[in-house]
Amino acid sequence: MLDSYHFRSIILKTDIYLGAYHRIFTLLNNRHVVLITDENLASLYPHVLKLFPYIVLPAGEETKSLSRIEFVLNKLMEMKVDRDAVLLGFGGGVITDITGFVASIYKRGVSFAFLPTSLLGMVDAAIGGKNGVNFNGIKNQIGTVNQALFTWIDTSFLNTLPYLHFLNGFAELVKTSLIFSKKTWVNIQTNREIILKTKPDYLQSLIAEAVQHKMKLVEQDPYDNYHRQILNFGHSFGHVIEMTDKILHGLAVSKGMVAAIKLSVAAGYLSRNLAKEIIQEFEALGLPIDMDFKAEYFILLDQDKKQVNKNINFIFLKEIGSAMIENVDTDTLKKLAYDARSISF
Ligand code: GLY
Questions:
Q1: What is the reported pTM?
Q2: Backbone dihedral angles phi then psi of residue 287, each to the nearest 5 degrees
Q3: Does 130 contact ligand 1 (Cβ within 6 A)?
Q4: C-beta of 128 in contact with ligand 1 (< 6 A)
Q5: Inter-axis angle of helices 200-220 and 163-180, nearest 10
Q6: DSSP string, 95-162
Q7: Cα of 97 to ligand 1 centre, how many Å?
Q8: Cα 201 vs. chain centroid, distance in angstroms?
Q9: pLDDT at 201 (0 to 100)
Q10: Whole-angstrom Cα distance, residue 95 to residue 46?
Q11: Ligand 1 test: best mutation among 95, 112, 124, most atoms within 8 Å of CB?
Q12: What local confidence, expressed as pLDDT, does residue 104 receive?
């Protein structure tokens, strides 16, 4: 069983560690640290709050707003935090996004590090350097691309994670296997029962693998101009489903992956049998699969930030472990969705 892991990116000047979190003290090396967290974590882990001066924010997606950013900036000024400080984001994706964004603009930039507490944070949100807030009802419209000093993954924090939030991150792990590795997909299928017991120990090697796959792409394309967009598999529809249906990101991405799989079949890239097998496995894993291609999804897709010259870089699945990016217009997606409706999955 994997109990420690380290990915060093010399290109991006960031480190991802997996192991017991008390080792972050060596990395922080007498720096002036300010912890940023949310109310839920503050009550679950009061001993962590004793370690550093802190700022506590309300829990939930609404916190990812410019007004909260202003609140944190004011707090940092009040606390007389100077440029050699390290802001340590202790929480899920909302907290790490806020921390990375605030650190990138406070006094024109201070260092930041992440101690993610959710599975989604460990495999996705706290990795990659994109940190932002929602704006005018659209996700992650305002933000920065800037790498953390380090991300420290301690899976013992998953012990307090509610099951729905486990599934939220698990959907991203499943996504990684679908686009990169048939071996991992088979591993998930084979160990389904044990993985779903959500014991952190069993997740560590899957997390390390997801980190490795993601970091390699981020190294190639840190600003998300092309190559790393493969990670958006399931996210075009996922984002609009998240906005309209107000469900957790990973659960929306699960439905978004089902949409992308159906469109991949309609486009002739993926076999119907394989698509059926994947969707059945999603169901066995407890991931949501119900989705309709609603007209409003296409309206929102038009406004989506992935739109380039009226087109969308859409991610199609070719087989398990292999996906591709194709620049398509919304009308093509509508036509594929129409065709997908008459295919039985
Ligand atoms: N913060 C998530 C990413 O950069 O992909």
A1: 0.94
A2: -85, 140
A3: yes
A4: yes
A5: 50
A6: HHHHHHHHHHHGGG--EEEEEE-SHHIIIIITSSSEEEEEETTEEEEEEEE---SEEEE-GGGGGG--
A7: 8
A8: 20
A9: 76
A10: 17
A11: 124
A12: 98
pLDDT tens-digit readout, 73-128: 999 999 999 999 999 999 999 999 999 999 999 999 999 999 999 999 999 999 99
Q: How far is ligand 1, taken at its centre, from the CA of residue 331, in Å?
A: 29
Element (H or E) spanning 68, and its range?
helix 66-78
Is residue 325 very low, low, confident or very high in pLDDT (cuts 50, 70, 90)? very high
Check if the beta carbon of residue 304 is closer than 8 Å to that of residue 340. no
Within 8 A by CB and 6+ apart from 228, the residues are 128, 214, 217, 218, 220, 221, 222
Give distance in angstroms: CA of 213 to centre of ligand 1: 13
* Tens digits of residue pLDDT in 125-142: 999 999 999 998 888 889
**Cβ 169 under 6 angstroms from ligand 1:** no
Atom of ligand 1 nearest to the CA of 228: 5
129 lines ligand 1 (CB under 6 A): yes
Spatial distance between the Cα atoms of 225 and 207, rounded to a whole number of angstroms: 25
**Is the minimum distance from the CB of 125 to ligand 1 under 6 angstroms?**
yes
Q: Identify whether the C-beta of residue 263 lies closer than 8 Å to the C-beta of residue 336.
A: yes
Q: How far apart are CA 343 and CA 119, in angstroms?
A: 34
Say whether 84 sits in a helix, a strand or coil. Answer: coil
Nearest CA to ligand 1 atom 2: 125
Ligand 1 nearest-atom number relative to CA 129: 4
Which residue of 14, 64, 94, 127 sits with most ligand 1 atoms within 8 Å of its CB, as the best mutation to test the pocket?
127
Instruction: Output the CA 172–ligand 1 centroid distance in Å.
Output: 12
Confidence of residue 171 (pLDDT cuts 50, 70, 90): very high
Mean pLDDT of 8-29: 94
